[in-house]
Amino acid sequence: MIYDELLKLETSKQSPHSPGIIQNNELVARLLVPEYIDDDGQVLASAFSHSDISVLRCIYDFESNKNLTIKQLLSNPKNIYKGYITAKICSLRNITYENLSSRLCYVIDSATKDKIGHADIKKITKRILNNTNIVLSEKRLKKFIESKILDVFDKEIKQ
Q1: What is the pTM of this model?
Q2: Which of 52, 59, 63, 145 is 20 to 30 A removed from 134 (C-alpha atoms)?
Q3: Residue 74 in 3-state DSSP?
Q4: In this predicted model, what pLDDT tens digit does every residue of 17-26 receive, in sequence order?
Q5: Into how many domains does the chain fold?
């Protein structure tokens, strides 16, 4: 897909189970496991290293969706639920590279029958941007986006 087509995905339901299009004023939550938190209790950018970053929309049955996600996390014996952090959709949608206007991520609903509040933050790759003004390699751009996503999430880990 090309850049404009990816952003257009935000303006329509992507799942038959979706409660609606994700609005700029919504909050989303990222659930945390130990590997996402350093020894000082700070969240690491690696919490956002996946290509599809699973989050929960806080306005749609959040507690039920959170509890189901925790149950799924705990099915792996290595996982321990450590809490969650939140961010506003508008902040995520405003992540750009330096003074360029091209966005570096987009957020779409990926609701399931059991988790109507599920959504994904997706990174926009250098290949899709096709912008020669971005001097970072694809790998460095990915790390840059992860750190910028971390920057817009609240620092307080909630339970």
Answers
A1: 0.94
A2: 52
A3: helix
A4: 999 999 999 9
A5: 1
